Amino acid sequence: MQEHETNEIDLLSLFKILMNKWYWILGSMVLFFMVAYVYAFDMLENEYTANASMIVLVSSDELNQDQSYKYGQSLAKTYTELAKSDTVIVRVMDELGLNYKHNQFRDMITITGVSETIIIKLSVTSHDDEEAMLVANKMIEVMQAVSLNYEGFDNIEILDTAHLPEGPSGPNRLLYVAIGIILGGIVGVGGIFLIEVCDRTVKYPSEIEKRLGLRVLGTIPNYHMEEEIETL
Question: What is the pTM for the complete model shown?
């Protein structure tokens, strides 16, 4: 019971400390807000995303319609891997005259098979809107050409070509700012707690009892004689 009361007193003391030094927390939040705002709106470049899509068509006398559809779904997964192969990537970069490292170029590409369909969606993100469009269209063109070299993979058709992005798709600048404000609050609170932990001076009677094991019989208040005289 006594330990529970002590914990409550300690938490109340910590809360009072935070309230007394609220300006530290506010100052830290404002500082981090300014840094995050400058970084997000002045230093980060716009990102543009161009989207294209393909469809996997399977037509075989040996397969019924349901089997052809399921086979097309399995091929869609294969094409998603084909899109990020060195064969496709090198050819796309060579034909467009791009100079990226392979991993850097792969990070620009997002290709997924739409669940329960035979449709493949391709997205290319770049700091240049025209480059994003050109890469997306060249990707599906090269994938279609490369697939002709392999038996059983010559059944991919372009569903939608990529168009010039109407506006930037990222980055989420408001998210950066929000994170900056939250981080500033955490740093402010952490800084206050760190100072309090390092401060070994005695501020409350309960600290004397805790450290020395002695019972406090009385305390002398902080009395300002000058203020008392002025009120007379």
Answer: 0.69
